[in-house]
Structures are given as structure tokens and as C-alpha cells.
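User: Predict the structure for this protein chain, please.
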Amino acid sequence: MERDTAAETALELLVHGVGGTTPAAMLDDPRTVRVSGDDTAAVYRRAADVDAEKRPDDYRGKPVPEAYVWCNLTSGNGSRALWLLLLPFMVVNLAHWMRPDAHRRTRTVRAYGLLVRLAGLSLTVLLVAAACEVALDLTAWQCAGTHACAEGRSWLGFLAVDAHGHGGWWSQPGRRLALASAVPTALTTLLWYLSHRTWSAYESQQPLPHQPDPDEAPTTALGRPGFWYGRRLVARLRAAHTAAGLLTVAAAVGTSAARFDRESGGPALLDVLGRLLDGALVVGAVIVIWVVCRRGRSEHKIDRTLDRTLVRRLPAAALTLLVLTFLYAGWSRPEWRSHGRLPGDATFGGIVLVQGALIVALALVAHAIHRRARDSRAALRGLGGPATAMLACALGGVMSGGVAQRVADWLDGPGTPGADSTFAGPPVLLSWQASVIPPLLVAVAVVCAILAVRTLRLKRIEAATLATDYPGEPEDAARTSRIAGTRARAALTDQAPMIIGVVSAVTLFLGAGALVGAWATHQVPGRAAQGAPDIVEGAAQTAQAMGSWLIGLGFILFVTWGRRAYRDASARRTIGILWDVGTFWPRAAHPFAPPCYAERAVPDLTWRMATWTRTTGGRLVLSGHSQGSVLAAAAAWQLPPTVRRRVALLTYGSPLERLYGRWFPAHFGPEALTALHRQVDCWRNLYRKTDPIGGPVRLPGEGGPQVDHPPLKDPLAYGRTEQHPLPAAILGHSDYQADPVFAEERARLLARLRPEVPAPRPDGEAAESAGSQGSSGRSAS
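Assistant: Here is the predicted structure, written as C-alpha cells:
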């Protein structure tokens, strides 16, 4: 009798989507109680439902609602605004997970991950090199070494030289460079600290121990025991990237002094020390690259091992080399004078060249993988990862170029950097990169115009077919136009691959042209075009001026947005939406990317579902909206097979196939989603044509109609009716529970769940039994 009563208990575990919400809004009750969790993420119930398991008769025919609130993982206090600085790192980390589907691990799959990790390493070097350009080259080398620039800046007085080239102890170029290097060193330290702190706060949760069912062929890595616990790889990459940043600073300081010692014919001891320093930098760079290439992710088990010697000694060794570089550069060289630029053109040119080669190689590898297992729905025919990696490199270039341009303009005052011999300005390559922004914007404008025409055409088609959704309603042209326009704009999401593909291809082509132009002419675009026809010279000068202005404007807007997010909670929540989408994936390519909230959320959900079903023997509907449906699917894959077969999945406004299936085919492709449908007890998906995010799951064969409900009506009523005397709202992506179909489908799922569940076990055995092997679970059922 107790067994039958327990089986009557049903739980609906609600998981919200992007942007977050409150427990009161999710449960439609102002009185809520936290039943498990902390201030970061927790499970809530209505106050009246806290002891629902003790009163099963009160809940016959309806589930006990329970809300999992995880929004504080991404949109919390003001310090999250600093995560905007990590945007290129987040984007390149996404590229790692966008590889095409492969039926088995091959050399090409491993090569794909290796190339993305190397691209991530190049972004770290680029960002630190940009900080070196600002602090060392523009400020300490050019401005402090030029009397005209430093004259009106009292804060540079102790570093500056007078009109005769004389100054105090700090005025020697090597000492100025050593002191200014504190800025990029502090930036590298900040990145290390953020990565280490966010790991401790977000990603150190232990996944639910489980063993995959040997009878089920693996279809996605998301079901592997160690997928959501990448501590070892993150620690290794953090050590390597920290060392790379410190070595970049050491190279910026030490190689300048070593070059002077070689060219000036100074003391032999300094010449030897400079050559030893250069050799040590090369050895350090080789070790860093080896560490990045040596190991990828370990997902088949929960890997709690840490490479402590490597993690501790590699950054310490790089820091020691940096300190030795400071001592070497600070050696007295009275005859040394700073003029022109530091060798930034070669540095930035080399980084851009390496990034371009990595992107091309990544595209070739991705094409080879996609060719073996073609997926017609995969974004850009399997090239979504290389295109995204290209965007990450472009973002890094815009950020570095924007900072350098703005600082150069500020230091040079009313002058134009590079227009005279007193202040050379930033490297020529950055001017060429700025000049390609106007043609890139022209290409984007053309794409937007094409999409606008397509949207208008689709709007007319939707308006013509709208009457079939609302038969017998009197026609209202304004109402029809509004509904059809909403549907047409929602369909723009499916055009995202074309936009990103065009932007990435044009960026790669123009970036290559900028690199060739900078190396071939050693002049800014406007000067390089002197002597050409007037129209060519005018176009070059216009592109250079507009690009410099636009890249500076972009940097200012970027800083302004970050400052507003620091002060304004609503703006911070908007940024949180960006991180909701971008930081679902673990840090596999870049350790300085924003933290992965799913490494906290997925274990939370799996532990809650496994322990509740095992201790109560009840039925469970996992109800996920938008990004919550992605968390729900990931959690279902992590459940022990015997528990997963007793869970019903209800998704609505879900991007599982529309976004994740297309952009991440190796993990959410047709085979993976078909296997999820087969492994859970039952699954139903709701969507609307007006929803720009959610869509059908599109399972092949009979699975499609079984999972996807026909599109819900939106709005619920075309005109005024007795049930809707006021015009019904167009809900789009929100408030799926307002549709009566939602309650009907949830009731069907509960009715379809098998009532045969195992009897409750003692509390001490609940968690252990949740991770038991499939054989013991099947015998219990």
C-alpha cells in the first residue's frame, strides 16, 4: 500500500531560461521557501508545498511544482561587468564545441581541439601584447622619451627626459620599460586570479557518480561521467596562459635592451646576458606550446588529478624570468635613447599571421570531419567553428587596436600620431586593421539589406496564410501585419549562419590584405596611397580616418557598457543573457573565458532528480524553458539510466535543435537528440512561429511527431472574443504556461510515466544508489 501511495506523488521541476527570474514568478506564489541550495543557485517550493510528499492525497492528479533558479550564476554583482573584457576568450571557447559530428574519435577530431587551443593561446598573447603596446611603447618609450609629449603630463615627470635628452634615474629607456611593464603584468595576474576564483566559486561541484548503460551506444559526450568536471585541463591551461602572458611582457622589455646591446657594441657581459635571455624566452615559449598541445579534455571519468608541479612551477618560472629581465633592462646604459617605435609591427604581424594560418587549418580539419558524416542542418556545412574562431580573433584585434588608437590620440593631444617624428604612434598594422572596418561594415550592410528583403517577402507569405490559423475571424489589416511581421522577424534566427559566415570570410580576406599592406609599405594606408590616382588616395585616407574613429568609438562604447553594467542591475542582467548563451560550455580552449555555469547547474539538477526519485519513488517531469531546456537535456543525459527512464521531459521555447543542434552538431545533432528521446520515458516539445529562439526538435522518422507538438497559436485569439475581450498579446518567447496546451501536455506526460518505481531506500543509501550501475537499478524495478 505504501508503494502505491508513493507512486502517486509527482514532481514538476521547473528550469527557467535566459535573463533569469524569481522563485515567486516561476511558482506564481509570493510565499516561497528554499528547500535546497544557496544564494547562487537553489531549489524553491511554495510554502504550502514544502511537505507535499507527506500528503500525497492532496496532490492526486497534479504535480508538486518546484523551481530551480540559477540566474545568479551569470548576472550577479557588479564585478560581472569585468567579464566583458573576456569576450574574445568566450567566443573562441565556443568554437571548440562547434566541431562537426564524428562517429568516433579520430586524429582529425583531436587536431580540431588542438588548433582551437592554439588559437586561444594566440588571443592571450595578443591581449597582453596590446597592454605592452600601450604601457611600454606608447607611454614609456615614445611619450616619456619625447620632451614635447611628456612636457604637459606631470605624472610622467620622473620618467621623462628634458629638451637636451637628460633626466633622472628612471629616465633611461630600459628602466622606463621595466617600470611600465607593471601594467601588463598586473593584467596577466588579474586574468589568472579571475580564472582561479571563478573555478572555486562555480565549477568545483562534483557531478553525480554514474556508470553509462553498457547496452546503450554512446551518442553524445554530454552523458559521460567527467564531462562537467574539467578541473585538470582548466588548471593546465591556466598555468600555460599565465606563463605565456608573463613571457610576452618579458619579451617586450628584454628584447629591446638585448637588441641595443648587440648593436651598440657595449660590454660583452651584457651581450651574453641578452642572448641568454632571448634563448630562455624561446625555451619558455616552446614549453608553453607543448603544455597546450599535450593534453585535451578527459571526459570518460571524473578526473580529480591535478598536475600540481606543472601548475605551480610553470607560472613561477615565467615570473622568475620576468624579474631577471627587469634587472637586466635596468642596467645603466647612459647612451641609450628611445626613438621611433618598439618592434610592435613585427609582433602584431606575427600574431595575425599565426591566427590566420590556424583558422585556415581549422577550416580544413572541420571540412574533413563534416565530409565523413554529413549533417544538412549543421551551420555553414560544418564550418561554424572556424567562422566563430575567426570572429574571436577579430574581436581581439578590435579591442587591442581600439585601446592603442585611443591612448595614442590622448597622448599626442591635438596632433596626429605618426604625422611627425616626435610621436610615431601605434604600429602601422593597427592602422591597416582599422582601415578595413569601413568595407567590412559595407559588407554587413549588404547582408542586412538582403535579409530585410527576405523578411518582407516572408511577411507577405505569412499574412496570406494567417487566415488558416484563425478561421472565421474578420480580417484586420493592422493585426495581420503585426502578427505576420513578428513571425517573419522570428525566422531571422535561422539566417544567423549566413551572417556569421559572410562576416568571418570578409574579415579573413580583409585582414590578410591589411597584413600584406602593412608589411609591404611600412606606412599607414593613407600615406601608402600617395601618388596613386586621386580617387584611390581619397578612399584610402577616408577608410583610415573612419576606421580609426570607428575602432575608437567601439572601444569607448565597450567601456561605457561595462561601466553601466557595473552600476545598473538591469544592464547587468542584459549582459547576463549573453553569458547564459555563451558560457553554457566548459572552458576547454581558453582558461580565462567566463566561468561555465552548467558545471554547477547540471550537477544540481541531476543530484536533485536522482535523490528525489530514489527516496520517494515518485514521478518527475523535468520542465525547461529556453536555455533551461538545454540544461534539462544535459542533466537528463547525466542521470543513471534507470533514473532517466522514469523522467518525462517537457521543453518549450527550446533552442535545442534550432541553435544548439545546428551550431554544436557533435553534441546536439540528430543522433544525440534521437537517443535522448529513446532514453527518457517520454518527451514533448512546444514552440511558436513567433518565437525567435525556440523551435521544433525535428527528430527524423516517427520521433518527430511524437516529440514536437504542432506550433502553438500566438496570439491565442486573433480578435476580441468572450475569453479575450481585450486584444490578446503576442507572447513570442515568453509565458508558455499561459497556453492551455501546456497544462494538457504536462498532464499527458504524467499519465504516460510508468508507475512501477522502486521502493524508497534509507536516506544514507539514497545518493549512493542513485549512482549505482544499471543492473542493480533494473532489478529494483
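The beta strands are 10-15, 32-37, 42-46, 64-69, 619-625, 647-652, 682-686.
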